[in-house]
Structure formats: structure tokens, C-alpha cells
């Protein structure tokens, strides 16, 4: 999925964090896969997510602007960090309208931190091993863009839409924060019908809602759409990325038997299914994972 070359990138609200040394406790050092495997083996559920170290900030973290590097859609098509910044612009513009239209809720943009190494957040210290995550306490999405290079390890391709799906999934949690849904989540729950799984599948679906509308979301500075319509091959790459991070796929890749009772994010099939629902439905209403018996 490509950006139109002539759109402009607003980098306000986007920062780059320099490498810092993670300090403090928690299981942040286990990383995303390690944290999930800890849960699968022992039943110990990390909170925010378990994926960030508790409380303390990282040493030596500073912020830089990316405004000099990321100016147009052409930059977004050639550089991962610029793609994330332009993706934020599109997501903010779309959800500003859609959230008010469907839910009567005023939208507030999420912050976006692009970092390497480790980063201090209001939820603790995130590391490059964590993978992308959303911190509700500071309403910000944190992404180490080197994570995208690991997609092949999970059985997915590192395409532009796969990257944007990951960003849009985290933005889905930001929308849940607006709607009060994050307060429903029991971080100790597990299983295919748990609140943890329902939340993650809904975030997948909300990512699909944005994908559905992305090529018609207009850059207010230029009057042209941020993005070109996705090709079928590009859509397939996003679905492959969703499948690659299914609980069953992760467990099997680790040499374990898939155990639905230990699922925390949803199976590969369900993650693809709910992403597809969002892409086809194009509305928040199409993403109700909470009222169905089993999402």
C-alpha cells in the first residue's frame, strides 16, 4: 500500500528516541515472544503489558524530530520511519471523523515514538525486544522499526501494508481507550473467549476498518488521498502478518502444542478473520468482539 508521492507529512506528535539502557525490573527483557512463552508455559500473565519493565525510565533516552527527513509521501514510500509518520497522519485524520460519526466521541491524536534500543514510557520501560505496543497512560504508540525486519521470522513479509497493519492495530487500542474498552480487560484472563483475546481481535478489526477507508482519507494540506488503494497482494501481506502473530502459530513455532486455553491474542485464523471483517465492514460497528459468544 503506497502513499501518494505529493502528500505532506506532519511530524508533530512524532518523535524519535535514542538508544538507552533499560533499567528496572519487570519482564521487559523477555521480549514479546519470550513474554508469551512465559505465559504459555507457566500461566503467568504479563500486564501491559508485561512487555514493558515496571516503573523506571530508561537511561540516556532523548528525543529527536524527524521533520527534516520526512516531508512527503515519496519519503514515506522509501523510509520506514517516514511511513510510520505518514501512517499516523492518515490514522488521525480518519479516526477524527469516524469516532465522532459512529460513537459521538471526540478524538484526540495518539503520540508516536519511534525508538531504538529502549525507551521510557508512562507504562514503564519498553525495549527493542518488546515489539510495538500502546501505552494507555500516555496515549502513545511505541515502535522500534527494526521489529519489521523480524517479520520473516514470524512467517510474514516485511511489506509496507504489513507495517501499516501493525501501526493501525496499535491505533486500534487507542480507539478502545477512547471508548472505555480498555477498562474491561482482565489481564489475568486467557482463552479464546477471554477479554484479552476479545480486545486484541477488535484491534485487528479496527486496523481493517482503517485499511478499508485509507485510500479515501484526504490529506487536508494537499486535498489528495494519503494512500493509493491496496492491491490484493498487499492485502494478503497484511493478513499474513496477522496470521504470523497468532497464538497457535507462536506456540507451534516454539515447539509447543497449541493450547487454546492459554491464548491471549487469538489464533492465526481468528486474527485474519477479524482483520478481514474490518476491511470488508469499514465501520466500528463491524468490530463488536464483545457481544458474540466466541469472537
Automatic annotation (TrEMBL):
It is a single-pass membrane protein. Residues 52-72 are annotated as: Disordered. InterPro entries: Uncharacterised_pept_Zn_put. Residues 53-68 have a biased composition (Low complexity). It is found in: Membrane. It comes from Arcanobacterium bovis. This is Metallopeptidase. Signal peptide: none annotated. The chain crosses the membrane at residues 21-41. The lineage of its organism: Bacteria, Bacillati, Actinomycetota, Actinomycetes, Actinomycetales. The keyword Transit peptide does not apply. Keywords: Membrane, Transmembrane, Transmembrane helix. It holds the Pfam family Zn_peptidase. GO terms for cellular component: membrane.
Amino acid at each position: 500500500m503506497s502513499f501518494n508521492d505529493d502528500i505532506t507529512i506532519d511530524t508533530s506528535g512524532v518523535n524519535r528516541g535514542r538508544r538507552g539502557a533499560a533499567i528496572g525490573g519487570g519482564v521487559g527483557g523477555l521480549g514479546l515472544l519470550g513474554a508469551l512463552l512465559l505465559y504459555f508455559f507457566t500461566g503467568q500473565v504479563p500486564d501491559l503489558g508485561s512487555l514493558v519493565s515496571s516503573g523506571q525510565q530508561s537511561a540516556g533516552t532523548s528525543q529527536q524530530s524527524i521533520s527534516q527527513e520526512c516531508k512527503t509521501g515519496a519519503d514515506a514510500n522509501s523510509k520506514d520511519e517516514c511511513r510510520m509518520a505518514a501512517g499516523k497522519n492518515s490514522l488521525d485524520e480518519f479516526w477524527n471523523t469516524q469516532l465522532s460519526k459512529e460513537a459521538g466521541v471526540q478524538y484526540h491524536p495518539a503520540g508516536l515514538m519511534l525508538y531504538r534500543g529502549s525507551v521510557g514510557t508512562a507504562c514503564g520501560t519498553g525495549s527493542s525486544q518488546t515489539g510495538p505496543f500502546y501505552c494507555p497512560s500516555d496515549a502513545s504508540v511505541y515502535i522500534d522499526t527494526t521489529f519489521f525486519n523480524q517479520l520473516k521470522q514470524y512467517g510474514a513479509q516485511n511489506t509496507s501494508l504489513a507495517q501499516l497493519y501493525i501501526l493501525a492495530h496499535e491505533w486500534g487500542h487507542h480507539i478502545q481507550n477512547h471508548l472505555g474498552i480498555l477498562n474491561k480487560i482482565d489481564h489475568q484472563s486467557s482463552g479464546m473467549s477471554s477479554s484479552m483475546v476479545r480486545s486484541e481481535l477488535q484491534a485487528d478489526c479496527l486496523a481493517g476498518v482503517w485499511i478499508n477507508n485509507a485510500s479515501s482519507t484526504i490529506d487536508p494540506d494537499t486535498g489528495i488521498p494519503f494512500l493509493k488503494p491496496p492491491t490484493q497482494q498487499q492485502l494478503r501481506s497484511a493478513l499474513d502478518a496477522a496470521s504470523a502473530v497468532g497464538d497457535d502459530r507462536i506456540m507451534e513455532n516454539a515447539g509447543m502444542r497449541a493450547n487454546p486455553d492459554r491464548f491471549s491474542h487469538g489464533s492465526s485464523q481468528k486474527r485474519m478473520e477479524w482483520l478481514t471483517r474490518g476491511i470488508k465492514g469499514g465501520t466500528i460497528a463491524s468490530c463488536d468482539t464483545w457481544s458474540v459468544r466466541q469472537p
